[in-house]
Amino acid sequence: MFETNHRISKKKTIIMFLGLFVVSISLNILGTKISQWLGTPLYIDNIGTILAAAVGGYLPCITVGFFYNVIMGITQNNTTYYCFISVLIAAAASFFARKGWLRKFPHILAAILTFAAFGGGIGCFLTWFLGGFDSFSEFGVSISQSTGMNIFVADFIATMIIDIIDKAIVTFIAVAIWMALPKRFLREFRIFNKDLSFKRTKGVTRGRMSLRSKALLVVGIATTLVVLSAVMVSAIQYHDSILNEYIEQGNNVTELMQQSIEPTMVDEFIQQGEKSENYNNIRHIFDNILKSSHELKYLYVYRITADGCVVVLDIDTTDSEADNPGDRLELDEYMKAHIKDFERGKDIEPTITNDSYGWLLTIYKPINDHYGNNLCYVAADLSMQNLVAEETMFLAKIISMFLGFLTLIMAFALWITEHYITEPINKIAAVTSSFAYNSTTARAKTLESIRKLDIQTGDEIENLYNTIAFSTKEIVGYIEDVQKKSRQISKLQSGLIMVLADLVESRDKCTGDHVRKTAAYTSIIMDQLKKDGVYSDILTDQYIVDVVNSAPLHDIGKIQISDALLNKPGRLTDEEFKIMQTHTSAGAEIILKAIKEVDEDSGYLNEAKNLAAYHHEKWNGKGYPLGLKGEEIPLSARVMAVADVFDALVSRRSYKEPYPIDHAIDIIRNESGEHFDPNVVNAFLEAEDEIRRIAEMNLDT
Question: What is the CATH number of the domain that holds 137?
Fold first, then answer.
């Protein structure tokens, strides 16, 4: 279920999370109970939340902050609706803990003020919304009375002062507990302590969203839409519920009014007013009814006809003096629209109006005589302002709770996305980007590195990991097989080259192991040049391998020279020497044909052509076949020139005895800058010991 650098089992992870959750919730509850027992105005309810943030990071502490308020809301009204504030404090605590600021005194003050801003600042406004805009603390009232300050400002200042003290106490207690915990214990909880920030993921192009951001965006949008829908549906249902309660209350009031007035009293009240024996009694009853509910605004009885409203009975209120019985009033717009229903004494639907009398819900009930003729209507006006206040309070509660829930969901989504998606993918990407196949050791490390990931998400990512692991193993096996075959081919190629060179050289009875010795000398000289840093732009490892492998072909052109000329015991005539010189061009043509047949840019064949064509060119330009000079001559041919001449000097020929090695070396030294490249001669002389070893070994043979 969960991965970390040191793997933790699913069961242990769940137990750790639940253990931290229970301990943190218990610390919050304990702090609250102690504060209540001491009778302080403090809350002391965030010790566990801050401790969970320091120990486990954002996920445990946000979970603790949310569910603590839910649990406390079971016994304490409105506590649940402060969960969003607790979640904000939890997120802030996680941020400060991750930055290491809870351990540094100047920074811990910033943390305390931040916690207080959420708990005291936002909490003060939320309290006004939840309890009404007359719900002020005793401390706030005291400040207002003693300073003459506005009550809202005074209450806000009072709340902030109390909350700063409260958050200072809980923060220092939580940090003290945190610092007392063993480091080994804290390391176990690193699995939960992930970064809540939305920083750009490594490898993601700037301006583009990472996979984590996309996943969180989808979850955030989906959850927000669900929350908004739930809030809207809840608000509508609450509005309808409260409105129905108002209508039911209005119906009850008008029914009571209806029952209080006898039909015979209507004309009596209109004609006699207060002089009527029953008028004052009924007015007293209606007055008591009006005072029984703060939602009731006006109670009155009207006879409603097309000519206007005739007052039957009206009740005084604090903001409106009652009309006198018998007074005729103008019809309002609603009455005009439904005048026929009023004249017929029909039931009138509850109506909501907003005019000079205020925003009112009006309930009408008819009073008819025994024959069904309408005599008048009793009416009750209920103020809708109270409904707005109740709806505002309800919205504050539900929005606060849903925001806390939304934050909790986002925290879980971030953690799950990090552990199940982005972290495994980033691990795979990091390992695969560092794969190396250039050696047996590197390939073994590659397989070991991907094996150690051990990704077990139980989904498509695990399938991807297993596929990559299997494919990598197959690729490594394929590479090893290819390299094995490549080595075999290379050996076969070298062997064929050597056989071909031997076939050519075997026609010359004087050359013996010339091709092998010159290949050895070229290898020694080029290795020394590379050590000296000379021609470093040319002398790569592959270049040296290509030259050494192709060195045996430098005299391949001799295949076109006759045996008689090759094995002539004496010196060659000028005519014969010119024929012998053609072996360079002939060799180049032979290798060019091979290159065309291969139809591939082969390094060793190109160098074989250079060696065959130019190994008799001289540094001073007096060589053959083209008379090239200096660095116009390919480096491989300049090296072969030294190796070829030295081997010829120290070897027995039909026309001469071998030169002593020292004498041969002196000749090479003396020809530096004339026949040979001075840099190549210097390298030859620096590697003299190795050159001697090869020469002496072959002399012994």
Answer: 1.10.1760
Secondary structure of residue 110 in the 3-state scheme = helix
Q: Which domain covers residue 463, as residue numbers?
A: 436-479
With a cut of 50, say whether residue 229 has pLDDT above it: yes
pLDDT per position as a tens digit, 60-84 = 888 998 898 888 888 777 788 888 8
Indicate which CATH number applies to the domain containing 549: 1.10.3210.10
Whether residue 409 lies inside any domain: the answer is no
Instruction: Say if 255 falls within a structural domain.
Output: no
> Looking at residues 213-231, what average pLDDT do you find?
80
Judge if 328 and 374 occupy the same domain. Answer: yes
Q: How does pLDDT run across 36-56, given as a tens digit for each residue?
A: 898 888 888 899 999 998 888
Task: Check whether residue 557 and residue 443 sit in a common domain.
Answer: no
Centroid of chain to Cα 370: 80
655 found inside a domain: yes
Residue 489 lies in a domain: no
CATH number where 330 lies: 3.30.450.20
Q: What pLDDT is stored for residue 2 in this prediction? A: 37
Q: Residue 76 and residue 546: Cα distance in Å, rounded?
A: 87
Does one domain contain both 533 and 467? Answer: no
CA 243 to CA 2: how far, in whole Å? 51
Q: Of all helices (H) and strands (E), which one includes residue 656?
A: none
- Do 675 and 541 share a structural domain? yes
For residue 135, the tally of other CB atoms under 10 A from its CB is: 12
121 phi and psi angles, rounded to 5 deg:
-65, -65
Query: CB burial class (10 A; 0-12, 13-18, 19+) of residue 171?
Result: buried
Helix 151-180 to helix 47-56 angle (10° resolution) is: 50
> Which pLDDT tens digit goes with each residue over 516-557?
888 899 999 999 999 999 998 999 998 998 888 888 888 888
Beta-carbon count within 10 A of 630 CB: 12
Strand partners, 374: 368
Q: For the chain, what is the domain count?
A: 4
What DSSP state is assigned to residue 421? I
- What is the pTM (predicted TM-score) of this model? 0.57
Phi, psi values for residue 497, rounded to 5°: -60, -45
Residue 138 has which token pair?
A: 């005793």
The encoded tokens of residue 225 equal 């839409």
Same domain? For 473 and 511 the reply is: no
Burial class (CB in 10 A: 0-12, 13-18, 19+), 165: middle
DSSP state of 102: G
For 178, the enclosing helix (H) or strand (E) is helix 151-180
Domain end point (choices 344, 366, 383): 383
Say if residues 393 and 429 touch (Cβ distance below 8 Å): no
Do 549 and 621 sit in the same domain of this protein? yes
Q: Give the DSSP letter of residue 192.
A: T
pLDDT digits (tens, 9 = 90+) for 633-692: 999 999 999 999 998 898 877 667 889 999 999 999 999 999 999 999 999 999 999 999
Torsion of CA 500, 504, 506, 509, to 10 degrees: -160
Distances in Å between the Cα of 392 and the Cα atoms of 118, 130, 688 are 21, 8, 99
Residues 472 and 531 reside in one and the same domain: no
314 Rama class: left (phi>0) / alpha (psi -120 to 50) / beta: beta
